[in-house]
Design brief:
alpha/beta, 10 helices, 5 strands, 190 residues, binds adenosine monophosphate, 61% helix
């Protein structure tokens, strides 16, 4: 069972590469951002709370995020057994620690963390373009600035966290999607 994390700043291509990995390796894709956007569009109670954070570019509180993730794992036991790609989770050190406990409880192990590394100027341009193409509500210039600041303060320390554990694999995410995926494939086939 292959469980991996796709990691990187907003706009680094996590979603695009996750879809390719799912198609190629048949893993179950868990995007916490997509789960939250689903709640927002269904106007659930959780969706209302999530929207108040997402629209400001802030992170959802860890305990809430962990409840959403645990519910998702409980709902799809057969798919989870094939292996999971975590896209957009963890985003804080406490989330990473909680994931470790969740894995231990469920007999799952982490294969590796694929870190998609892209220069910051390119990230902002990519997100602005995505906002224009998809109309994603949090892809606006003010929200992008907030999300980048949150990434630097709360999420990027995870790089070091996983490097220390020997689980971080740096991927140059500034190239074409095909080139990036070729690297990911050879990393995962090792
Ligand atoms: P994403 O689609 O991964 O870019 O996530 C969009 C937004 O959802 C983020 O800017 C956060 O507000 C929220 N979000 C997604 N994943 C998490 C997470 N693991 N922890 C906290 N908030 C999250």
């Amino acid at each position: 069972m292959l469980n991996i994390i796709v990691f990187g700043a907003p706009g680094c291509g996590k979603g695009t590469q996750s879809e390719r990995i799912v198609d190629h390796f048949g893993l179950h894709h868990i995007s916490t951002g997509q789960l939250l956007r689903g709640h927002i569009s269904r106007q659930t109670e959780l969706g209302k709370v999530a929207d108040s954070y997402i629209s400001k570019g802030q992170l959802i509180p860890d305990d809430l995020m962990l409840d959403v993730l645990a519910a998702e794992l409980d709902e799809h036991p057969a798919e989870i057994a094939k292996g999971v790609i975590f896209d957009g989770f963890p985003r804080t050190i406490p989330q990473a620690e909680a994931l470790e406990q969740l894995f231990a409880k469920r007999g799952m192990t982490l294969g590796c963390v694929l870190g998609l590394e892209v220069p910051e100027e390119d990230l902002v341009q990519r997100i602005i373009k995505r906002g224009q193409e998809t109309g994603r509500a949090d892809d606006t210039p003010e929200t992008i600035r907030a999300r980048m600041a949150v990434y630097h303060s709360q999420t990027s320390p995870l790089c070091e966290y996983y490097k220390q554990r020997g689980q971080y694999r740096a991927i140059d995410g500034s190239r074409t999607p095909d080139e990036i995926f070729a690297d990911i494939k050879s990393e995962l086939e090792k």
